[in-house]
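Service request form, structural biology core

Requester: graduate student, group of Dr. S.
Request type: structure prediction, single chain
Budget code: on file
Notes: please return the result as structure tokens.

Sequence provided:
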Amino acid sequence: MRKFIIVTLLLCSVPLTKTVLAQEAESKIKYKFGGYVELKAYFDDYKSRTTRNQMIYLYPLAPDYVNGRDANIASILNAGVFASRLNFAVTGMEFMNAKVNTFIEADFNGSSQATIYMLNIRHAYVNMDWGKSVFLMGQTDHLTLVNEVTANTIAFIAGYPSNPLNRSIQLRYSYSPSDNIKLLAAAHIYTAHKSVGPEDAQANAKIPDLQFQIKLGNTQKTFGGITAGYKFLKPVIYDYQRQTNAPTMGTFNFGAFLRTNIDDKILFKTWASYGENMTMLGQLGGYLMQWSEHSSIKYESIGAISWWQDTEVNLKGNFKAGLFAGYQTRLNASGKVISAINPDTVKDQKLIWFGKISPRVTYNISNKFILGIEYSRTTARWAQELNPKLEPLSKYPATSNNRLELMAKVIF
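Core staff response, request fulfilled:
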């Protein structure tokens, strides 16, 4: 009788134990809301390539002469709050001895000019952290966008388009053999930020964009690294002239970055890249395609070189002063592919180069309320005519835009 009572009590305690353990696990989970409200007002004095109500600025357009006068000499004044963000994080979960957390963030930029003021998903991922190794699944920044080395500009997207912009679905693995070394590898599937050409070119290739990175050093002192990657695209599926599958196009990218902190007073950052058809990152370039009755389909990728630096100095009274400078140039073709230039496969094909210099001043109130002003001068050089190698036969005079931008930002 005594044994029966003991066994019965043990059996009855099992559901209770599971309930207690579940309650303990649930009590470790934490939820956090965050984001910021940001108001920006901006003035331009020359027509430029922009989007999102002129808030996202690229570069001035080529001259448009009408009766001897450049019709693009025209100013605008605009403002917006759609860069404001909301985010939500969940921490405290565990699985396979890993700390599991999730993060989702959205702004109101929409996915295009037509959907502005609608929610736009920036990040949505699950992170599994074992300490030295971390595995990420979901959508976040492309590996070429190094969060530790981004410009602190007032202008939207931290130095874009000199700095890359791409958020994509990815599987990312990072391993830290020591405190000052981190190795990363990622496989990207593009979502909103795609290469020029057919939208399903990467899906047709059936191979993700593969990126590898090494980070060295301490972000509080000196920190840097390199990124290298290779992607595959298949703009055309079938070659009907040869009655065979069309070839897959492969392109590479290479980048380097550096950050150094001098006596906690001067923060210097720089980033540079070189590669082929990096249009999914917002860079110039693309590809040429040759397809005729007498030859099979051939591709040639058009590359670009991009560079920027950002220096910020801590001043007295919560003031900071900064200076951003950036430059990007499109490379020419080799001439191995003879084809008419297709504007759908070469981004702004007549744009040879553009550069920007931007001084700024910000005032931080308890790191939660920030006011700022920034002046930017962006200059671009466009070709009037191009040869089949994309070399300029004639050029327009350089055009420049002066932008004055004001910001008020409250972080919560």
